[in-house]
Amino acid sequence: MKYSIITLFPQIIQSYISESIIKKATERQLIDLEVIDLRNFTTLAHNQIDEYQYGGGRGMVIMADPVVKAIESVRTPTSFVILTTPQGRPWKQQDAKKYAKNYNHIIILCGHYEGFDERVLKYVDQEISIGDYVLTGGELPALVILDSITRLIPKVINQESHEQESFENNLLDYPVYTKPYDFRGDTVPDVLLSGHHANIQKYRDEQQLLVTLKKRPDLIDESKLNKVQIELLKKLKPKGEN
User: Fold this and answer.
1) Is 8 known to sit in a ligand binding site?
2) Which of 28, 98, 146, 203 is the most buried (most CB within 10 A)?
3) What pLDDT is attached to residue 158?
4) Where does S-adenosyl-L-methionine bind (predicted)?
């Protein structure tokens, strides 16, 4: 997988990708990552890339010319271009899976100021939002997208880790514990120390459902539950409710 991240602040991206899983994936040549400074594609003095809005209005708008030139400098027939913007489609785990599987080159364009000249959208394949709030810039959303896709690429992390993560079956992850057994009177559930793998798995399946019902009941999809979870859900539902 190759990523090309177009940004006004390459240092923000460089700082993150020089650490942790992204760094290891790059060193192992599982991904190829380039950071592109948008200011390198302007022909104006002082590396200017923004201008006042036509029609008036607060804030500066990034001009189309340097953005399109930056995209064209790396785009190939198989590239997929993402624009990070609050107006985009909400980013989900299923999107990360789709992108990891279907694309070999992703270009991520980081938004800033009052946005881009609207004509830039003709050169973008998908607008993506990571939530209904506004950030100073698109670097953080770009890194969220980069990280969530990369960890799904084969050999980046252990396959078993994927299977146990939140959202993999539309449920949140089960609670986890480590030493000490007793922390200020709060002890680890005894089933986890039993060594009985079937009972441990049953406990975790039940906890996944309970945690999701408590924190994110909107995620529950009965078609994706296993037998243990379906039976537990039936017991928890009020009488008469389907």
Assistant:
1) no
2) 146
3) 81
4) 111, 130-135
